[in-house]
Fold this sequence. Notes:
By secondary structure, the chain is α+β, with helices and mostly antiparallel strands. Helix content is 22%, strand content 35%. A six-stranded mixed beta sheet has the order 1-2-3-6-4-5, covered by helices on one side. The protein is globular and about 40 Å long.
Amino acid sequence: MDGDWIQHGKVRAREAAGEIEITIDGLTTQARYYKPLIYEFFRKAWRGSRPGWGEFSVEIAMDYVGDPPWLDLDNLAKAILDGIKGYVFQDDAQVARLLVERRAGERERITVVVRKISEHSGLGARFQR
């Protein structure tokens, strides 16, 4: 993905080729910490595309160092989706595909990749006869 990074505090994002990639440096076990952090980034720094309609795919990866943190991934996903709602898509009900994973990494961070799903891609198109 190419594109210039926009940064505000611990959050940075870039947009290219129909994708928005967001990274958040550091980890905390409090999922509720992420919603206002992301919301503030979009409110103060983001000058990219406006929220879209249609269906979206969201991939969230939590990279950790050492022992995995005690953080429920479903709570993390909800906080992140609430933070980007109104900036990337209109409502989190537009998320048709959601992948959330915890993985060992070289540094502690969260990476979010959001893609618009075209009418002819995704799981629905694969299973239609």
